[in-house]
Amino acid sequence: MAHNAKFRIWRGDASGGDFKDYTVEVNDGEVVLDIIHRLQATQTPDLAVRWNCKAGKCGSCSAEVNGRPRLMCMCQMSNFEEDETVTVTPMRTFPVIRDLVTDVSYNYKKARKVPSFAPPADLKPGEYRMQQVDVERSQEFRKCIECFLCNDTCHVIRDHEDNKENFSGPRFLMRIAELDMHPLDTIDRKKVAQEEHGLGFCNITKCCTEVCPEHIHITDNALIPMKERVADVKYDPLFAISSLFRKKDKARSD
Amino acid sequence: MAEVERHTYDVIVIGAGGAGLRAAIEARSQGMRTAIICKSLFGKAHTVMAEGGIAAAMGNVNSHDNWQVHFRDTMRGGKFLNSWRMAELHAKEAPDRVWELETYGALFDRTKDGRISQRNFGGHEYPRLAHVGDRTGLELIRTLQQKIVSLQQEDERESGDGESRLKVFAECTITRLTKDGDRISGAFGYWRESGRFIQFEAPAVIIATGGIGKSFKVTSNSWEYTGDGHALAMRAGATLVNMEFVQFHPTGMVWPPSVKGILVTESVRGDGGVLTNSEGKRFMFDYVPEVFRGQYAKSEAEADRWYTDPDNNKRPPELLPRDEVARAINSEVKAGRGSPHGGVFLDVSSRLPAEEIRRRLPSMYHQFKELADVDITAQPMEVGPTCHYVMGGIEVDPDTGAAKVPGLFAAGEASGGMHGSNRLGGNSLSDLLVFGRRAGAGAAEYVSGLGQSRPTVTEADSENAAAEALAPFRAEGGENPYSLHMELQQSMNDLVGIIRRADELEAALGRLEELKVRAHAVAVEGHRQFNPGWHLALDLRNMLTVSECIARAALLRTESRGGHTRDDHPGMNPEWRQVNLICTADGDSVTVTRQPLPPMRPDLLALFDRYELSKYMTEAELVDLPASSTENGES
Predict the structure, then answer these.
(1) Beta strands of B397-486 (E only): which ranges?
(2) In this structure, are residues B86 and B95 in contact, taking their beta carbons and an 8 Å threshold?
(3) Per-residue pLDDT averaged across B212-223, rounded?
(4) Tens digits of per-residue pLDDT, B318-357?
(5) Cβ contact (<8 Å) for B44 and A52?
(6) C-alpha dihedral sign at B338, B341, B346, B347
(7) Global ipTM
């Protein structure tokens, strides 16, 4: 069943822009990205958008739909009322390039600052032995598709541009946790996490976990354990609070 | 003339998927200043779509496995049309390439004794696919991406500049390869973000641009898969091989329409999923072809026992090579025994506990839940064939990845030969690593051998390329590239799809001629900054060239083999097995010529039973072979 939907899309570039209204056909089972593509094909061929797999696997089509950070390819139109106006804006934390496309180079710069995996020097290829239960913790974080929605939603950088220098956002703090929990990594990463990537800025509001399209428990499984490890060696005022949350969560899930 | 940014490198790699990244790692490790150029952001390549795993005969789960068995499976899957040298190198080197990934930080699923776990897959005799749940491609791309970062960190420590020897140019599209005489001299392109032009000068170019699926309407491929590398190489004078062989993956989503074509991993079947028709029948038992009869179960009971006792039972026919399963599904739907939305049922819910399904197939669970509102732990999926992979590609030297043009190399899906007429699942990720590394090494060796006599790029080269790229802005009142693209996809789907006929292929060629004329007049609106209409207008040329290769080769090959099924010429013909079809570009049109396959080396031929070979080869090819040891050809 097709109907016409009202879309309001931010159009512009680094110098400024504004919302533009469109009326566009929507069919059963379609997602927001389908509608953006229909607009390109029928009304505004130069509407800029990033996308690739259209199956929630590559993390390219990140944007904000009605103010919520989403992958457009995984955002079903059936979530909205037929007469509801759907507003699509670029990710707010990153500078706009054009329309829905933002400059996400911040993330790639931070990735380059995370010390790489360092296996034991005497271990030869083919000799790695690890237990499934031990790799699973890091495997959860390696599900990350680098959509950067967690970094987009994190208020530490969303609302405070000047924190970007000293804070790498949930994505890369999780990457450090991933390496720290790798059964064969040999580097102590606590100091780097705290001093170079700003782990202490995180006040575990769990916004990142909420927007993660891969449903990774970023806060509970990566950030809080990392904070705990750091707190073992260095006092962190949030450690006390975080362990409280942990107890509550555990009690709830039990 | 427009301003052009200029860069000089030893090696440039076009494409940042598994093959491109592995090639770049190798070139850089051999001392080459290397650039990686990709259309998307770094880390978004189509490799992430690979789900099931990497095929490598490590023998971790079944110790009977070895490279010879993997080689045999690959040749059988490709119906013996494969470049046997590539299949040999691939089977021998894949385990090392997988183990190497662990040293880069990859975390594969494990066996009980802590080694890399391996799963069953179509056409593979033993559990052979190293995997991470059903997101192996993502693990591969992220691991290689992180290895690149670690090399950049090394350079930063040494020289203070992390991009001094290895740099990624993301969201940058190459529109033309430049030449100095008959040698490659570099590549010209534009930044997608700004539309500004960029000229690379480099004596070696490695094409790792992936496939061509966006020429078809129903496909598992993303917008990037427009055959750029195939077309760039052809225009530079290289040849393409086997272009008639296009793999339709048997299981793509069929409902809702907006997700039609999205991949449903073969792991669903590898882990026990079964295919049924509207009558509830496991129809694959009716579709085991003569050449595979000895290797697959004859009853459901035997097939089910195989999962727990593979040494004493034969495998279920759901795990036949992809071409066989895709054709079977197509036939069931045509016979009126399809599912409500024109596919068949794929059910794993009655085969595994819900918890186990969520653990082994998390992405599939998630994908169906969110996109189709189907819970695969409780309901069957509806699936049908989707254009997935092109076996054909740039003709290369197996050992070095060198194409016919000096300085041009290719690896991965963009190159041809390795998979013959049909690729086995899991052989793609291993192909990327084995031949990505080889192309990187091949390019490094070529550049080292040049000494001071490097080819150069002239101003005029860049000017010509810029004029060509700007043409769509000058066309006034021309057509919208989107509508032309949709017509192309519909034509390819209807006329050059999974089942082909001479009259339809001729009709397709007629339409392609007409589309080529109209594509010249395509007009784009707006300006050069991140303008998807312009990008598509340029990609459209490549899609049309590649589509013509597929249609012309498909018309010429009057037999059915692997990913090429001729309704009017059913069955394999041993004479055709000795022939490769080679495409060359002649201006705007494509010429296809026949080229004999080199005969297989005797020691490799000896890995097969004479009886089995007799199903594929002519009597003349078999005269020197010893008599058959068994009559049923089972091994």
Answers:
(1) 408-410
(2) no
(3) 93
(4) 999 889 999 999 999 999 999 999 999 999 999 999 999 9
(5) yes
(6) negative
(7) 0.91
| Contact across the interface for B486 and A41, Cβ inside 8 Å | yes
Task: Write the single-letter amino acid at B397.
Answer: D
Q: What's B258's DSSP letter? A: G
Q: Which of B249, B388, B437, B438 is catalytic?
A: B249
Judging contacts by C-beta atoms under 8 Å, the chain B residues touching residue A55 are: 49, 259, 262-263, 367, 371
User: Is B341 noted as a catalytic residue in this protein?
Assistant: no
Average pLDDT over residues A64-91: 96
d(CA A158, CA A136): 31
Contact A167, A215 (CB under 8 A): no
Query: Tokens representing B57?
Result: 């005969």
| Three-class DSSP category at B368 | helix
Give dist(CA B457, CA B451) in Å, integer. 17
Q: Does A40 touch chain B (CB under 8 A)?
A: yes
- A46–B153: do the CB atoms touch at under 8 Å? no
Axis-axis angle for helices B136-159, A132-142 (nearest 10): 80
Q: Give kind and range of the element (H or E) at residue B148.
A: helix B136-159
A101 vs A110: CA distance, rounded Å: 20
How far is it, in rounded angstroms, from Cα B481 to Cα B521? 10
Interface A–B counts its CB contacts (< 8 A) at 174
Site of tokens 């060509």: B468
Kind of pairing between the strands at B579-586 and B240-241: antiparallel
Among residues B149, B166, B77, the alpha carbon closest in space to that of B431 is found at B77
Read off the pTM: 0.94
Say whether B153 and A139 touch across the interface (CB within 8 A): no
Amino acid in the structure at residue A234 = K
B96 touches chain A (CB under 8 A): yes
The per-residue pLDDT for range B533-589, each reduced to its tens digit, is 999 999 999 999 999 999 999 999 999 999 999 999 999 999 999 999 999 998 888
Angle, to 10 degrees, between the axis of helix B532-556 and the axis of helix B481-495? 20
Amino acid at A31: V
Our answer to whether residue B249 is catalytic in this structure is: yes
Sheet (strand B197-201) strand order: B4-8, B197-201, B183-191, B172-180
φ/ψ of A250, rounded to 5, equals -65, -45
